[in-house]
Each structure stands twice: as structure tokens, then as C-alpha cells.
Design a protein that fits this description.
This protein has 530 residues and is α/β, with parallel strands linked by helices. Strands 6-15-16-17-14-18-13 form a 7-stranded mixed β-sheet, sandwiched between helices. A 5-stranded parallel β-sheet has the order 8-2-1-12-19, covered by helices on one side. A hairpin with a 3-residue loop joins strand 3 and strand 4. Helix 1 packs parallel to helix 15 and helix 2 crosses helix 15.
Length: 530
């Protein structure tokens, strides 16, 4: 506990998992009274990208699913070990997650499927000697040398045809034009997954979707401690000043609430934690007979706020490096709400995996590069018996589908379902499945924007140099060695922000390095040369 925290106030801009985690650390580790903390969120619900909701009638939806993992997610587990589940205060979210994964072991038997509907032997990664040399070269280069170059700048065409790349890219949502720096970091961070990438045996899942299993319990814990979550608040600007000691401080947070302007004044003892950008900003939904809109004009406040702040100081980052090319960053996901078990049963028979035990099933030859996963049922709080869900996404949304002839970005939900059934070869149950299934699609223009090519200073530090009272949060800050597009990155950044600004005398769990474990490194090496 820090003495200054008792009399300080904290304002957290954005209600995603980074802000929620920071608020927990402020209360739990810095000793700040919860009633001194405000979370300012533009949307009606907190949680950011960790979303999930709906009902049997209109359908359930999650925009995305975040992979969890034992070795790499140490800061997330640190957070969740002190958060009780909603159903039992004596059981932590971490304990519930561990027990769930012990009971539902992941081991996919159908990771890759070809154009004829055959399950491929995905254990054969398909590397040539040239592929291995190119991987080794990328790993050996420092980030300062790699710079803003693309993944495809470092590999020959054959690499992109391998089973390995089909699995790695769809597990983590990489495009060939994404940042080579980020791919290198992923190789190093998840090296332990390489020998099991064809089974996804290292993936850990929550009991329900991550909104119900993580966000809601964290939010309940915060509210019990007096933290206020103010929804419908769009932060438009932050005013900074330099004190007599040379430290930079936040003086004012400007916002709009119900169209009316407002401001919070911050004193010298107060703190601001500001989420930059958003990978789910301007997400739009489609249905059975509608197509989701692709928003290009940044209507969400997150990107506009960062652009405003970036003009104030050169070390506040360069948002244009990440939000400047929607067509490189977008993809589309879909959630099926099924009132018949026909599709779930057929997938189980086909794949050999009960719901919740398989991983992504990727249709390797599909023009959309579609992948789907069947979670353990129920996947949503309150989901009744006899209702089932499935989630999927595609990376190439502007390519024509094999079955519909349409781009995914121009396809209705039912047309997306038709495409899926065609790839599975399940035409005999198509009528029943389509008649009993509601499809919700989601277009996300910035979903992989954090993977965009960047220079070393395009992302600001969590605590900018000279900051005495503010820190940046989220997927667009710079945390050396760690990887974006993970829950761990947001939580680790929150821990750095709180511990660093408030002088919390606790160790931040180190970034896991698989190469430091000889056995793990040897297993990965064997997989590459198999």
C-alpha cells in the first residue's frame, strides 16, 4: 500500500480489460480507496474487446475469442487469482478456469481441412530448409533492423503455403503484410506452442465466454469496492501541464455525456490512465438477411482521442501508423445460434472432438480462409438447454466464396452459413440447419490494427518519460518483448502503469521466455525439423 494513494483520485479513460485491471491493481496493490476511482466508458457496457451477449431469440454474439495460455499469461492469472466468481465467493476466476480446463482438455483432431473436406495431417508442418533459414534469420535480427517491414519481406512464397503458416496465422490472425517485428515477438513468446500448434493443446479457455467469465466478475469486484464505472462518457481531450519539478501532469479530462460537455479537474496528487485506440472501434453487426457496415470514418471516440493527444507531444505515439489502412486491418467474424443439435453433432462426428475440446478448424483452401470453433456448451450465461453456439471468422473478407460467389464483406449471415456448410460437405443437413440457426456477423475495421507495420517509436511507452501522474493503457502502448492482441498485454501494461506511477513495491511477473527452458526449446526445434 502506498501512502499517497489514500488521498489521491484516479480517472481511467476507457472501460476495457486494461482499465478494469488497472482499477483492481489500484485498490488491491496500491491501496487506493475504490470510491476515489472512476472509469469513463463511452459504450453501454464495459469490457472492450472481451465481449459476449445476446439471447436465444435474436441470437448470441461474441466479436472475437482471445486465446489464453498457461506459461505466457502470468499477469492475467495474477489478476484473476483474487477475483471471485459470480457464483461462489470462495472460488476465484483463476481456480474456476483451471478446473474447467482440467475437465475439458483441449486437443484438436481437425485443425486443417482441405478443399475436398478431408482432415489434413497438420502435424506435418511442411518446412523446407529455406523456410527454416528464413525463420532463423528473422529471429536473429534486432527490431531496430527489422523496422517497418512486412512479414512477406522475410519469407519466400513456399513458406506461406505450409501447414505451419496456415495454423499460425489463423490462430493469431496474421496477414502476410503485417509487421515482421510482431511475428518475431510471437515466435519468441509462443515458441512453446509450436510443437502443439496442430492440436492447440496449450490453449486455455474460460468456462463461459470471456465477458461472462472475466469481465463481469472483475466489474462486480470493483463495484463492491466502491469503484464507479461511468458509461456513456466520451472523453474528447486531456490537458497536460509541466510542473515546477519538470514533471508532466494531467490537469483536466474533457468529455461529453449525453451530448453535453463536461470536465474533470485533476489535482497534483491525482492520476490519469488513458486507453489509446481500440481494435474493436466502429464494429458493426449484420444478421441473417443483412450485411454489416464497414465504417471507415472513425465514429468511435477512441481513435479521435489518441489523434488529439498525439498532436500534443512527439512521444505520445503515432496513431496513423495503426488506423491508416482499414483494408489491411479488418476482418469479419460470425456467431451461430442454433436451435437444433444437427450441426454440432455432425461436427463432433467429423472432427472427433466434443464441444470445447477442439481448436480452430481452418478450411485451408477456402478463398475466405475461414476458421470455426465449437465452444463448450453453454457458452453464455443463461443460455438454455437445446440452444447451441459456434464462432468463426475469416481473414480474406474481400475474396469471393466458393459456394456463394460473394465476398464475405457483402454476404448476409445466412450466406456465410451456406459457405460454411459447403466447406464441411454437410449439404444433407443444410435445410434443417439454416431453418433453425440465427447468424450474427460482425465487421471490425481495426481488429488487427495493432499488427500494422510500425517504427520503433510509433507506440508510446506505458509511462512516458517525465510523467508524474499519467500512463497509457491498451494494445497500442510499447511493452518490450511482449505481444499485442492478447489479454496478457493489456493486463501487463496496467500493472506497469499502476506499479510505476504509484511506487508499488511488488514485482511484476517477468515475460516468459521459452528459449530459456532447454527442454521447451528442444521440443520446438524437433518440431521445426520433423
Amino acid at each position: 500500500m502506498t501512502n499517497e494513494a489514500q488521498d489521491s483520485r484516479a480517472y481511467l479513460v476507457g472501460g476495457g480489460i486494461a482499465s478494469l485491471a488497472a482499477a483492481v491493481f489500484l485498490v488491491r496493490d496500491a491501496g487506493m480507496p475504490g470510491e476515489n476511482i472512476r472509469i469513463l466508458e463511452e459504450l453501454p457496457k464495459a469490457g472492450g474487446a472481451l465481449d459476449g451477449g445476446g439471447a436465444p431469440g435474436p441470437g448470441y454474439v461474441t466479436r472475437g475469442g482471445r486465446m489464453l495460455e498457461d506459461e505466457a499469461y502470468v499477469c492475467l492469472w495474477n489478476l484473476l487469482e483474487t477475483i471471485p466468481t459470480l457464483g461462489d465467493d470462495a472460488v476465484s476466476v483463476l481456480q474456476e478456469t483451471e478446473e474447467f480446463n482440467a475437465a475439458h482438455v483441449s486437443h484438436a483432431h481437425a485443425r486443417l481441412i482441405d478443399h475436398a473436406g478431408n482432415i489434413l495431417d497438420a502435424s506435418q508442418l511442411g518446412f523446407t530448409t529455406a523456410d527454416r533459414v528464413e525463420m532463423a534469420r528473422l529471429l536473429a535480427l534486432p527490431e531496430s533492423v527489422i523496422g517497418a517491414r512486412r512479414i512477406e519481406d522475410f519469407f519466400s512464397p513456399h513458406f506461406f503455403t505450409t501447414n505451419f503458416w496456415a495454423m499460425w496465422r489463423t490462430t493469431f490472425a496474421f496477414q502476410n503484410w503485417h509487421s515482421a517485428i510482431e511475428l518475431k515477438r510471437y515466435f519468441l513468446r509462443f515458441l512453446q506452442e509450436l510443437p502443439r500448434i496442430h492440436t492447440l493443446a496449450g490453449v486455455r479457455r474460460t468456462r463461459l465466454n470471456q465477458y461472462d467469465s472475466i469481465v463481469r466478475p472483475v466489474q462486480a469486484w470493483l463495484e463492491r469496492h466502491g469503484v464507479r464505472i461511468e458509461r456513456g462518457v466520451r472523453v474528447t481531450d486531456v490537458e497536460f501541464a509541466v510542473g515546477e519539478d519538470g514533471g508532466r501532469r494531467v490537469e483536466q479530462i474533457l468529455f461529453e455525456r449525453n451530448g453535453a460537455p463536461g470536465a474533470y479537474e485533476l489535482g497534483p496528487e491525482d492520476y490519469a490512465f488513458i486507453t489509446l485506440g481500440s481494435m474493436t472501434a466502429d464494429a458493426r453487426y449484420g444478421g441473417d438477411d443483412t450485411v454489416p457496415e464497414l465504417v471507415r470514418d472513425k465514429r468511435d471516440g477512441a481513435w479521435n482521442l489518441w489523434e488529439t493527444l498525439a498532436r500534443k507531444a512527439p512521444d505520445f505515439g503515432r496513431p496513423g501508423a495503426f488506423n491508416g489502412n482499414v483494408d489491411e486491418a479488418k476482418w469479419e467474424s460470425f456467431t451461430l445460434t442454433m436451435r437444433s443439435p444437427a450441426l454440432i453433432k455432425r461436427i463432433e462426428e467429423f472432427s472427433g472432438n466434443a464441444p470445447g475440446t477442439g481448436g480452430l478448424m481452418t478450411f485451408k483452401d477456402s478463398r475466405w480462409l475461414m476458421s470455426v470453433v465449437v465452444p463448450h456448451q453453454p457458452h453464455f450465461d443463461g443460455q438454455p438447454a437445446g440452444v447451441y453456439t459456434l464462432w468463426g471468422y475469416a481473414l480474406f473478407v474481400d475474396e469471393p466464396g466458393e459456394r456463394t460467389g460473394k465476398k464475405m464483406s457483402e454476404a448476409t449471415g445466412q450466406e456465410v452459413l451456406t459457405e460454411l456448410l459447403g466447406h464441411l460437405g454437410f449439404d444433407d443437413i443444410a435445410d434443417e440447419v439454416c431453418a433453425t440457426t440465427t447468424v450474427t456477423t460482425v465487421m471490425m475495421p481495426y481488429i488487427t490494427s495493432q499488427f500494422e507495420r510500425r517504427d520503433l517509436h510509433d507506440r508510446p511507452l506505458v509511462i512516458p518519460r517525465g510523467s508524474a501522474s499519467f500512463a497509457f493503457l491498451g494494445q497500442f502502448t510499447e511493452i518490450p518483448e511482449d505481444v499485442v492482441f492478447t489479454v496478457e498485454y493489456s493486463v501487463r501494461g496496467a500493472m506497469h502503469a499502476v506499479y510505476g506511477l504509484l511506487g508499488v513495491d511488488k514485482e511484476i511477473p517477468p515475460v516468459y521466455h521459452a528459449l530459456s527452458d532447454p527442454k521447451t526449446a528442444l521440443r520446438a526445434l524437433k518440431a521445426v525439423f520433423a
